[in-house]
Amino acid sequence: MAGKFFGSEVFGFLLAVVICISCPEYVSSAQREIGKGVTTNASATSSPGSGDNAIRSGIAVAVGPRPTPRTGPYFDLAASKNVTALLGKTAYLNCRVKNLGNKTLNIQISWVRHRDIHLLTVGRYTYTSDQRFRAIHLPHSEDWTLQIKYPQHRDSGIYECQISTTPHMSHFIHLNVVEPTTEIIGGPDLYIDRGSTINLTCVVLYSPEPPAYIFWNHNDAIISYDSPRGGVSVVTEKGETTTSFLLIQQARPSDSGTYQCNPSNAQSKSVVVHVLNGEYPAAMQRGGQAFAPTSPAHFFFLAVSLTITLS
Fold it and tell me: Which residues form the Ig-like domain (predicted)?
């Protein structure tokens, strides 16, 4: 009996030694298999569980972090630009505020004039005694507009659109009030030979938009391009600088007189045309300088004076 018991103890001891020796390697092997499963599960299909978490983790790394949406109001700069306005013509300064939502009860949009740090509007209300200024805002609109009627040169400058956050946010808009000017090239007097072509060129400068029309007058009467006189035409090129050409062929003495260029958005300009019938005027203006023709007698007296001076 004792021998059998001793044999059983020896067998049990040897079995325990074998299990303990092989156990760490078994655990290590199992860990490697699990590790392989984790790294490859990002591209493999598996049942829900730890493998599913590995797949979602792999996708997150591939896609990257999602952009954080704006949580507060901000200015739309593309719709809030500087303005060039025509003298006396209503100007509109627009300020577009995005992502304001239903916060208008707590956050206000204001307009401030920088020239004198004067508060002009708050929300839809106007806070200035100058009735030319007015706040415009339609319900559910993102646009907060400052209207200026009959703008003058002194209204030019910087205007601030302000959001009453903490701290407040500001966007600056520059208003430039311009007055278009009209010029007729070669004026104020033009001398034309009879039978040649009268070419009057009227230029409209500093206009934020081309004039809607340009009328030409001759001696206070509107020129008719379909008149029996014939040979009268006009060509107008519109752009940043608008130019109008009045062409009158086969000039005759009756074409002499005052010609006036009348743009729709600028002051008129006049020029006096003299059609010459072979005569030579006593004084002519060309290039802004007056000069008179020189006769042979003039040269004679000049030579005599020079001789006396040298002697």
Answer: 73-164, 180-272
